[in-house]
């Protein structure tokens, strides 16, 4: 009887103290590279408006998020939301002055985690899926581009988000969020990830660090639910436009080479 009581006492102690002895790491498993692959995107516009009294130029600024999805010997390709690249002129200029716009200039700038800035050019915009691809010449990160997942997420899959909501993005500081894939409805996919202005274009990645989505909007009534293009549209947009731009750069290089060769031959020289 005494042995049974002793055994029961040991079992009870084990049950009580086991949870405090077993590692319970419920923290983020977000891959380290995701922070380095992330960039904040700044849109800086100058709009000149001319009326009878004269002309005035007003600056307008907005920001979003993005991630490096490919690179080349000349620079890196950045994915973001389509509306981050578009200048929504009707939202910043009063309707009665839209006809008085004389000149508009827009600069796209990317900022990495060390707060270094680089100019970027818009390569392609898909307004239907709200996607934009940019190219930043002479920019590379140590981590390289994010890997595009071979398959889309499954319902209930845990996912992660790197973003700069309301401009929260400082040197070596970037918000890391998590949520779950809720499902899709046509061109839209839904995630239980909180988002605010500045989150647009931010990547959604799985536990392996592969890109599966990108936030382009949020449910205003319940901002804990974010919306992304569906995975197939996202992957197709990236692959088609990156490949097309790389081919364009290749053709430009070949054209430059053909134009230079006669100059060498005119001097009686030959390349070795």
Largest sheet: 8 strands, mixed
**In CATH, what is the class?**
Mainly Beta
Any idea of the CATH topology? Answer: Thrombin, subunit H
Helix content: 25-40%
Radius of gyration: 25 Å
pLDDT < 50 runs, ≥5 residues? 7-26
Order of helices and strands: HHEEEHHEEEEEEEEEEEH
Number of helices: 5
Would you count the extended β strands for me?
A: 14
CATH arch. level architecture:
Beta Barrel
In which order are the strands of the major sheet placed? Answer: 7-12-11-8-9-10-14-13
Tell me, rounded to a whole number, the average pLDDT: 85
The span between the termini is: 96 Å
Strand content: 35-45%
Estimate nothing, just give the exact number of structural domains. 1
Shape: globular
Helix- and strand-based class? Answer: alpha+beta
Please give a structural write-up:
- The protein is of the alpha+beta class.
- 25% of the residues lie in helices and 38% in strands.
- The chain has a single domain (33-235), classed as Beta Barrel (Thrombin, subunit H).
- It has helices at residues 2-21, 33-37, 82-85, 89-92, 231-266, and strands spanning 38-51, 54-71, 75-81, 101-111, 117-126, 131-137, 147-148, 158-162, 176-185, 188-191, 203-205, 210-214, 217-218, 226-229.
- Strands 7-12-11-8-9-10-14-13 form an eight-stranded mixed sheet. The protein has a six-stranded antiparallel beta barrel with strand order 1-2-3-6-5-4.
- The longest helix is centred in the last third of the chain and has 36 residues, at 231-266.
